[in-house]
Backbone:
């Protein structure tokens, strides 16, 4: 598996794809996190009067918890920022995984097929990123991981990807803040 991943990492189309996946996953979390950080509901309507076992009621309960809602928001923002930064993308993929797995399990539990498709793809993309960085992660997971071989490629490690990721994160956050200001006024 390691040799296969190493061969893929050397191909420029896979490097571009990986950078794109990082931006895409990071964008999704930064976008969703701003509402939570600002203390705004994720859905436009209250789920307070929905049946207890519904996804709407669960989201409403999380929203009403206050601190937990902010905690989820800041966790999503941190994971999104780290994964978009490219420099800390391995750490971002690690932080992203339990959050995304939790979201996937919630959507599976509530059998929401349209949301389940999206969360399944996001979880698979996150697993792809974890496999992409296997050469780093194996030291945490395996008992005898072997020796470390730096698999960084000149194209994917250019600073432009880091700057672009940080600027994208800032732009998304500003746009989301501006759009929630417009909605709330």
Residues:
């Amino acid at each position: 598996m390691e040799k296969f991943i190493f061969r893929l990492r050397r191909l420029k189309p896979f490097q571009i794809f990986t950078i794109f996946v990082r931006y895409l996953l990071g964008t999704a979390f930064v976008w969703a996190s701003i509402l939570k950080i600002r203390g705004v509901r994720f859905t436009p309507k209250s789920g307070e009067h929905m049946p207890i076992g519904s996804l709407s009621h669960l989201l409403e309960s999380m929203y009403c918890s206050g601190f937990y809602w902010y905690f989820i928001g800041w966790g999503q923002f941190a994971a999104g920022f780290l994964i978009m930064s490219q420099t800390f993308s391995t750490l971002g993929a690690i932080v992203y995984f339990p959050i995304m797995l939790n979201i996937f399990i919630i959507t599976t539990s509530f059998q929401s097929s349209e949301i389940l498709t999206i969360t399944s793809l996001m979880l698979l993309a996150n697993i792809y990123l974890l496999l992409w960085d296997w050469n780093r992660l194996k030291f945490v997971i395996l008992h005898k991981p072997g020796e470390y071989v730096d698999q960084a490629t000149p194209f994917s490690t250019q600073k432009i990807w880091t700057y672009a990721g940080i600027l994208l994160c800032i732009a998304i956050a500003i746009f989301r803040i501006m759009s929630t200001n417009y909605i709330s006024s």
Summary: The mean pLDDT is 86.
